[in-house]
Amino acid sequence: MSRQVSPTSWTGLQLLTPAGADVSGNADLGIAGNGLVIATATVNGDEANNKLFATEWWEGQAPLPPKVISASHSWGPSLDVNTKGEALVAYTYGGLNTDVVTVSRRTPGQGWSIGDSTSNTGDVAAPPEVALSDNGQGQVIYADIQNGFYVAQTSRVLPDGTAMPDQTVGPVDEYVYETSVDINATGSALFTWISKKNALTRVFSASAANGAYPGTASPLSGTTTNAVDPTARISDSGLRVVQHSGDGQVVTHTRTGGIQPFVPVYSGNGFHADDAVDVDREGNAISVAFKPAGGISGKFFDAAGPTVAIDTLPANMLENPPLPMTVFPISWTMEDSLSNIPSSDIYATRAAWNEAGHSDPEVLVNDAPGTEADVPWKLGTSYCLQVRSTDAAGNSTTSDPSCTTVPLDDRGLVGDGWNKVTQSGNFRNTLLTTNKQGRTLTRTGVKAKRLALVVRKTDGGGTVKVTFAGETLGSYSLDGTGKKKVINMAAFPTVKSGTLTIKVTSPDGKLVSIDGLVVAK
Fold first, then answer.
1. Residues 223-251: what's their mean pLDDT?
2. What is the domain-level CATH number for residue 157?
3. Lowest-confidence range among 223-227, 278-282, 454-458?
4. Residues 71 and 199 placed together within one structural domain of the fold
5. Alpha-carbon gap, residue 127 to 269, rounded angstroms
6. Is 14 in the same domain as 67?
7. What's the confidence (pLDDT) of residue 326?
8. Is a pLDDT exceeding 70 seen at residue 324?
9. Do 422 and 332 share a domain, yes or no?
10. Is residue 353 a contact partner of residue 380, using CB atoms and an 8 Å limit?
11. Measured distance CA(520)–CA(491) in Å, rounded
């Protein structure tokens, strides 16, 4: 084989099987996240009788010498490699009185395990196909003969390489051929196979959750009358794809969720039986088919929404423009590999300073073009914002929540003997000030998980003691310089309710300037 080293260049051909030996059947290979290529094949010749080898080829190096996985009587190897460099190979071993489907696992730094049987009946009718998840779970499907029929069998493989007992899936009175399985990063698997009975050919599929055997198998609707070579693919986002050929067509069945049925899409007539299908990291699918005299045809299935994330928001909205503005600007990043993104909606839950919990999500901005929008706000309110972007194919993705709190302004606090000051640079351009010991500000009905005080600090500034729900949060100095300074006072595991009181404890003549109160949830 040859491997690509740049967008326009490849290495020379490298031999991955023992020199002088003939490959028996089809070889298989996979590549890990670090560029390690692993290939498996059974070979004859050079004193080898269907000996199963595995070869490792590290990026930038020559291939290592092939390692023996099974010394003889092994054929039909199927290999899968995950991003961590773990590998799983399944093959049929015929060195006993019966044919046994066997698995062997590669663990980085430990090599290959001794083969472990899946405990099948011993009469294999269709060679195994294997899939290995990034979480270490594996799945195997094959067919063996039971009561004169070819029956689909599956077996789970544990992360330590143990093959669990086989389990029948699908009809037990038909003839199963051409099995296929795929698994995603979290261990969800998709199986497919051809099943024939009384000249009727059907394509079946079944799904399995992480660490589980497949559930009920179902025939796919819209298959061709002479269906062959079904291929299963499942993305990390849950897109399920089964593709098969037959009657000069390539049929791609897609299912984007766990409830709706598979929907078939047809290539048109005149296509060869050779085809391929795969899914990308975003959850889209690509189908490739060959049409004699027409070349290679490729089709993308846009099944995934954009990637979208809100840019970092401040912990509070002290930098918000002063009166009379009642909106704050937000921005986000978004990208879609196959479609443009016409618009986005901005959703939010919100909780006012005197509310115990957030509201249900509501749309604050609808159909915003581009990546910026102005979001309306209210004083003393916590917001958890999400951007939902929709691509031109109708696929939507919602960002993770990004939360912020607009402080309660000083004018929302109650107290006698305080001076109401208007001064630019403070939150909302206002302050409450005093230089008298014992003056207080209160706010009843506060419900908070986090409390912070917004102040103006001055050289020689005074001190305040803050209590909440009958408990002292602390004494805080306002000595220093700067406007809109935040003093974090308390964080609670759950929402706490009560009256908040700010009391001046410094001697007369020491200036105290209160700018606002952060009541966050």
1. 95
2. 2.120.10.10
3. 278-282
4. yes
5. 30
6. yes
7. 77
8. no
9. no
10. yes
11. 9
Alpha-helical segments (H) within 94-213: none
392: in domain: yes
Q: How many angstroms separate the CA atoms of 60 and 113, rounded?
A: 26
Task: Give the range of the structural domain holding residue 315, as residue numbers without chain letter.
Answer: 307-405
Tokens of 9: 């260049």
511 domain-assigned:
yes
Torsion of CA 74, 77, 83, 84, to 10 degrees: 0
**Is the torsion defined by CA of 249, 250, 255, 256 positive or negative?**
negative
Question: What size, in residues, is the chain?
Answer: 521
The sign of the dihedral angle between the CA atoms of 432, 438, 444, 450 is positive
Instruction: Compute CA distances 492 → 89, 502, 519, whole Å.
Output: 52, 19, 12
Residues whose CB is less than 8 angstroms from the CB of residue 86 and which lie 6 or more positions away in sequence, other chains included: 105, 106, 107, 108, 132, 136
**Chain-centre distance for alpha carbon 197:** 40
Provide the CATH number for the domain around residue 336. Answer: 2.60.40.10
Residue 517 CA to residue 515 CA, distance in Å, equals: 7
Asked if residue 323 has pLDDT above 60, the reply is no
Q: Specify whether the CB–CB gap between 131 and 138 falls below 8 A.
A: yes
Cβ atoms of residues 291 and 249 within 8 Å: no
pLDDT at 325: 59
Last residue of a domain, one of 360, 390, 405: 405
Domain-located, residue 277: no
Residue from 455, 447, 449, 448 nearest 502 by CA: 455
d(C-alpha 491, C-alpha 124), whole Å = 64
Question: In which band, very low, low, confident or very high, does the pLDDT at 315 lie, cut at 50, 70 and 90?
Answer: low
Q: Which two tokens stand for residue 348?
A: 């939010």
Closest CA to 221 of 172, 173, 189, 254: 254
pTM for the full model?
A: 0.76
Q: Cβ contacts of residue 260 below 8 Å, gap of 6+?
A: none
Q: How many domains is the chain built from?
A: 3
Contact predicate 277/285, CB 8 Å: yes
422 lies in some domain: yes
Q: Which of 186, 219, 252 is the last residue of a domain?
A: 219
Pairwise CA distance, residues 234 & 181, whole Å = 9
